[in-house]
């Protein structure tokens, strides 16, 4: 079983480019977290790792390879620490461990996005999220595949309208204590850490940290991609993941 956990600005459709390929080799589960896609809106703070546990229990899934992107990667790390007996391997894409402290000034898009959120300008919020996560720090929108951007826009609009991040994730329910960043050495399953070369430098620093601290980690940087390398270079991404899993 391979479980796919989406990033915190899109939904499970971000794995469209992986689905046909991965399902040829594994039973695959992808789902919309609360407040995203076809799931119910979030009504208060949630524990993403607990939601994942409940879902796997409901589906009678005892063991799985767990792959998460961005917030999904943080969820995957937390879940592995809390339920190590259920995780066969861990794949983190563009993710930071809980408790990871960003250095330097925050991206300008993030500050603008928070301001637009306060003003209720949801169109602007959505565009800035796409600029921040799909385009990245080093590209203009016209330098990114328009199909990738449009797909992300379609997924992003619902959580923006639902206020998912503010309601559910700004102050998550029952975060790991101590946080994952201080416990990475406790993770002993094989791990693959991936990031896009054009992502925020702090995401790349987090990838370095994960690659160094996870006991059995392999790190791969995918060139000319930002925060969702699986959407930008699906063929390369799929081959990397399948190659990793086939050697376990």
TrEMBL record:
Gene3D superfamilies: alpha/beta hydrolase. It is an enzyme of class 3 (hydrolase). Residues 2-234 form the AB hydrolase-1 domain. Its EC number is 3.8.1.5. One of its GO terms (molecular function) is transferase activity. GO terms for cellular component: membrane. This is Acetoin dehydrogenase E2 subunit dihydrolipoyllysine-residue acetyltransferase. Pfam families: Abhydrolase_1. Keywords: Hydrolase, Transferase. It comes from Methanosarcina lacustris Z-7289.
């Amino acid at each position: 079983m391979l479980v796919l956990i989406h990033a915190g600005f899109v939904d499970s459709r971000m794995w469209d480019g992986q689905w046909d390929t991965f399902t040829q080799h594994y039973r695959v589960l992808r789902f919309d977290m609360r407040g995203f896609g076809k799931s119910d809106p979030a009504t208060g703070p949630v524990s993403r790792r607990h939601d994942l546990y409940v879902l796997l229990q409901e589906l009678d899934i005892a063991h799985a390879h767990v792959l998460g992107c961005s917030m999904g990667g943080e969820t995957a790390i937390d879940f592995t620490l809390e339920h190590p007996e259920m995780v066969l391997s861990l794949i983190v894409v563009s993710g930071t461990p809980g408790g990871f402290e960003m250095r330097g000034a925050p991206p300008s898009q993030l500050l603008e996005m928070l301001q637009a959120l306060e003003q209720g300008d949801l169109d602007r919020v959505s565009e800035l999220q796409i600029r921040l996560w799909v385009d990245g720090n080093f590209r203009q929108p016209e330098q990114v595949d328009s199909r990738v951007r449009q797909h992300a826009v379609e997924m992003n609009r619902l959580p923006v309208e639902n206020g998912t991040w503010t309601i559910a994730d700004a102050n998550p329910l029952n975060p790991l204590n101590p946080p994952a960043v201080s416990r990475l050495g406790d993770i002993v399953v094989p791990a693959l850490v991936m990031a896009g070369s054009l992502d925020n430098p702090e995401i790349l620093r987090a990838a370095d940290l994960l690659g160094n601290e996870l006991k059995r980690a392999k790190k791969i940087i995918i060139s000319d991609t930002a925060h969702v390398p699986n959407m930008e270079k699906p063929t390369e991404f799929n081959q990397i993941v399948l190659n990793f899993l086939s050697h376990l």
